[in-house]
Amino acid sequence: MKVPFSWLKELVDIDVTAQELEEKLFSCGFEVEELIPLDAGISKVVVGRIVEMEPQEGTHLTKWTAASMATTSASAPVRRT
């Protein structure tokens, strides 16, 4: 069964890394099949939130959005289509 380490930390008071927990479980007789690092190979990720959304005139599906991006130094919204 695959269980995110963050879930274990929410349910059980764990103050070790995932690798240390794997070693401790193995020493107690439990088998950990694999550790999958979910952040490996991830780069150029931009976090933001949509702060405004308006319908574009003449269309029924397209909308103009304004997003506040975490990587921009200014707090002004960035317009994207």
What does the model show?
Helices cover about 20% and strands about 20% of the residues. By secondary structure, the chain is α+β, with helices and mostly antiparallel strands. Strand 2 (about 65-70) and strand 3 form a beta hairpin. The radius of gyration is 21 Å and the shape is elongated. About 0% of the residues are buried.
Give a quick summary of the entry:
This protein has 2 helices and 3 strands; from the N terminus they run H-H-E-E-E. With 81 residues, the chain is an alpha+beta fold.
List keywords for this structure.
single chain; 81 residues; alpha+beta; three-stranded antiparallel sheet
Strand order of the largest sheet: 1-2-3
Structural class by secondary-structure content: alpha+beta
Distance between the termini: 41 Å
How many separate helices? 2
Which blocks of ≥5 consecutive residues have pLDDT under 50? none
**Order of H and E elements:** HHEEE
Percent helix: 10-25%
